[in-house]
């Protein structure tokens, strides 16, 4: 038996004739501004997501945070010489974008994911994935994905992760939906069925100047990240928008609508912060929108919500996409119907690249031993692995144990969904995503693998 395992580097899918790709770091011209290739790439991403194009001034603001996060840009480009031979080549030359604009984009960079183990695990994050609708069915997405997953494997990453706009695309590349978030609507009125908590206030919530909170935001998030399974390290843009230095609608301007509050615990430490905006005097009922709420513990989270609900002229609070599935708020209210779930959707999708490293970094609910046969259409994580958990710590070997009492089969996308504990093995079994021999003890497997609370990813990328 050996614990050595080397993920297989996937074959990079080829592009259709007349297309080529390149990966590069955001660059600058002689004047220190984003160079033509970088500017065209970033504008293409915004174009692909139906967002306004960035102005030159906005690109200058954005460029440093790309570099701070060490983001790498991969673009697929049309060979104009080839295009000239096509019937549409003349039109592309005349009215199309210039050659610096790609027809496919892909951005990746490294942060960490808290899988519940002793330390967060480095992971390759993927964002900015677009394909020009005029160039579909030419292998662009498959090429970019296999190319960059190959790079992640070569760099020794155990995980890749992304958030998705369309849920039916990334399962074929081995990604599984791994966390969810709730949208909430809170009745903040004091009368009738409105907001009232069963417990007295703890500590003090303070309205603060958001422009002074950068260190607080970083410190609170660092504590949250270290203590929260499912959390993903944040990109630098969070500190700019969270401190009102960037208006999300125009990053060259201050966000003068942004408001902030912190919760100060009884020992004087700051246990959480909230960034929020007022929906406007024409909103009916009068509504406050939470943009970001990060708390070290449930007490600070609830106290920040108490603070918002107690503000004058506010009858409703909405959190469009930021509340954990295991939110204690409803059970802390005198009237649990004062809060309603308005949405529930997936957030983080996980792609396991190295099952040994990934499973050893995961949390476990009980001791146990079992073997997994993992299938992977890209070949990266294919293999048989034995997982032995003792004292909450797993040791994973890359060959089947003769003594393991249980053996289960699943594909790498199902493993991604199972990884952070958002879904139980019994649910995946019933969905046909995990199989076993007839005599398998599913109850024992579930008691070992399943975790008592849902994971929470508060980072969007």
UniProtKB/TrEMBL annotation:
Keywords: Transferase. The keyword Transferase applies. Residues 60-198 form the N-acetyltransferase domain. GO terms for biological process: aminoglycoside antibiotic catabolic process. Transmembrane segments: none annotated. Residues 1-36 are annotated as: Disordered. The keyword Transferase applies. GO terms for molecular function: aminoglycoside N-acetyltransferase activity. Pfam families: Acetyltransf_17 (PF17668), Acetyltransf_9 (PF13527), SCP2_2 (PF13530). This is GNAT family N-acetyltransferase.
């Amino acid at each position: 038996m050996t614990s050595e395992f080397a993920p297989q580097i996937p074959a990079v899918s080829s592009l259709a004739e007349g297309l080529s790709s390149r990966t590069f770091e955001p660059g600058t011209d002689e004047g220190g501004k984003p160079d033509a290739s970088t500017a065209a790439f970033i504008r293409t991403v915004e174009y692909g997501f139906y967002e306004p194009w960035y102005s030159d001034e906005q690109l200058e603001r954005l460029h440093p945070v790309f570099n701070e996060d060490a983001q790498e840009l991969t673009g697929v480009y049309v060979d104009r010489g080839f295009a000239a031979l096509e019937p549409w080549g003349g039109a592309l030359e005349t009215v199309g974008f210039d050659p610096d604009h790609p027809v496919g984009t892909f951005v990746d960079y490294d942060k960490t994911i808290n899988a519940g183990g002793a330390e967060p695990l480095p992971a390759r994050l993927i964002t900015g994935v677009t394909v020009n609708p005029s160039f579909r069915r030419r292998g662009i997405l498959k090429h970019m994905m296999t190319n960059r997953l190959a790079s992640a494997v070569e760099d020794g990453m155990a995980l890749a992760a992304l958030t998705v706009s369309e849920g039916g695309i990334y399962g074929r590349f081995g990604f599984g939906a791994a966390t969810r978030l709730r949208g909430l609507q809170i009745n903040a009125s004091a009368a009738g069925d409105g907001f009232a908590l069963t417990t007295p206030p703890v500590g003090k919530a303070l309205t603060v100047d958001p422009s002074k909170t950068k260190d607080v935001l970083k410190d609170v998030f660092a504590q949250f990240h270290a203590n929260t399974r499912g959390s993903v390290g944040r990109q630098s843009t969070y500190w700019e928008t969270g401190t009102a230095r960037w208006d999300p609608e125009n990053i060259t301007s201050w966000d003068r609508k942004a408001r902030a509050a912190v919760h100060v615990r009884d020992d004087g430490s700051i246990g959480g912060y909230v960034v929020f905006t007022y929906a406007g005097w024409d909103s009916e009922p009068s509504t406050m929108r939470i943009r970001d709420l990060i708390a070290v513990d449930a007490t600070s989270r609830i106290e920040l919500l108490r603070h918002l609900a107690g503000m004058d002229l506010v009858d409703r609070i909405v959190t469009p996409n930021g509340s954990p599935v295991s939110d204690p708020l409803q059970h802390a209210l005198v009237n649990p119907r004062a809060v309603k779930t308005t949405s529930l959707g997936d957030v983080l999708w996980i792609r396991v690249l190295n099952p040994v490293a990934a499973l050893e970094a995961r949390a476990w609910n009980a001791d146990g031993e079992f073997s997994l046969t993992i299938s992977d259409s890209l070949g990266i994580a294919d293999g048989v692995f034995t997982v032995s958990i003792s004292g909450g710590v797993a040791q994973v070997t890359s060959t089947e144990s003769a003594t393991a009492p249980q053996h289960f089969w699943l594909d790498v996308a199902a493993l991604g969904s199972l990884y952070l504990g958002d879904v139980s093995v019994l649910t995946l079994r019933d969905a046909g995503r995990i199989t076993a021999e007839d005599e398998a003890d599913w109850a024992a497997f579930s008691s070992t693998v399943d975790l008592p609370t849902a994971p929470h990813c508060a980072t969007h990328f």
